[in-house]
């Protein structure tokens, strides 16, 4: 086949280091979400939705055929951290957690995940980030060790 075609949709979740609530200012949170979307687009992984709350983010994106998942996440975190350090003096000590969760999403389930990502504020009035993340791991049949998930 002379052409490479794909439609791999990924739901990416990662938190701030120690799940510290850095994004309590809605304007800053929205700026970070927009910046992450821009970095992802530059990496040829267009975002479908970006959302989150004060201590973590969710990105739903179509993966590029030319970048691997770990490189995409590494660059999202690196570029956004540098940008926040330069943009806001009160973010001088900001860091993302080392790890992440990445989950495949079928095309037929994309709309439901978009709604989930966009309604994070309402969702987290009922459930903590840790419980949300554990539920996502269970749903996607991913085994984990609590000692190594949270940093």
From TrEMBL:
Pfam families: Y1_Tnp. Residues 5-120 form the Transposase IS200-like domain. Signal peptide: none annotated. GO terms for molecular function: DNA binding; transposase activity. GO terms for biological process: DNA transposition. InterPro entries: Transposase_17, Transposase_17_sf. PANTHER family: TRANSPOSASE FOR INSERTION SEQUENCE ELEMENT IS200. This is Transposase. It comes from Brevifollis gellanilyticus.
């Amino acid at each position: 086949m002379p052409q490479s075609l794909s439609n791999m949709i990924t739901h990416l979740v990662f938190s701030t280091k120690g799940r510290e609530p850095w994004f309590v200012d809605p304007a800053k949170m929205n700026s970070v979400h927009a910046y992450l979307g821009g970095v992802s687009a530059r990496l040829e992984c267009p975002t479908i939705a970006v959302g989150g709350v004060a201590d973590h983010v969710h990105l739903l994106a179509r993966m590029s055929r030319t970048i691997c998942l770990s490189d995409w996440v590494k660059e999202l975190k690196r570029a956004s951290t540098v940008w926040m350090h330069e943009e806001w003096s009160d973010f001088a000590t900001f860091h993302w957690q080392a790890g992440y969760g990445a989950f495949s999403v079928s095309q037929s389930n994309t709309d439901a995940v978009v709604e989930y990502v966009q309604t994070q504020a309402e969702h987290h009035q009922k459930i903590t980030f840790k419980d949300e993340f554990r539920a996502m791991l269970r749903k996607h049949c991913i085994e984990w060790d609590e000692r190594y998930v949270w940093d």
